[in-house]
Design brief:
Pfam families: HicB_lk_antitox. This is Type II toxin-antitoxin system HicB family antitoxin. It comes from Dyadobacter frigoris. Residues 12-64 form the HicB-like antitoxin of toxin-antitoxin system domain. The chain has 70 residues and is α+β, with helices and mostly antiparallel strands. It has a domain at 8-55. Helix content is 30%, strand content 20%. The chain contains 1 helix and 3 strands; from the N terminus they run E-E-E-H. It has one helix at residues 35-55, and strands at residues 8-12, 17-21, 29-32. The protein has a 3-stranded antiparallel β-sheet with strand order 1-2-3, covered by helices on one side. The protein starts with 7 loop residues before the first strand and ends in a 15-residue tail after the last helix. The relative contact order is 0.22.
């Protein structure tokens, strides 16, 4: 995995799957039956998110690493 964006992973009982969110990329999330599958899927979604942003001429946020919440 070559992403430097912060990833947040959690288990969703409702979906019976692991969910991965990328807070720095609005709406960017993926799921998987295992943690490994979810990580593979999020890399695909991140790549698609960035490709779509480029096609639409939108800014692509620079990865900030660990985000701090108050």
């Amino acid at each position: 995995m070559n992403t430097k964006y912060e990833l947040i992973m959690y288990w969703s009982e409702e979906d019976s799957a692991f969910i991965v969110e990328v807070p720095e990329l609005a709406g960017c999330m993926a799921d998987g039956q295992t943690q490994s599958e979810a990580l593979i899927n999020i890399q695909i979604v991140i790549d698609q998110w960035i490709e779509t942003a480029k096609e639409l001429g939108r800014d692509i946020p620079k990865a900030k690493g660990k985000l701090m919440y108050a």
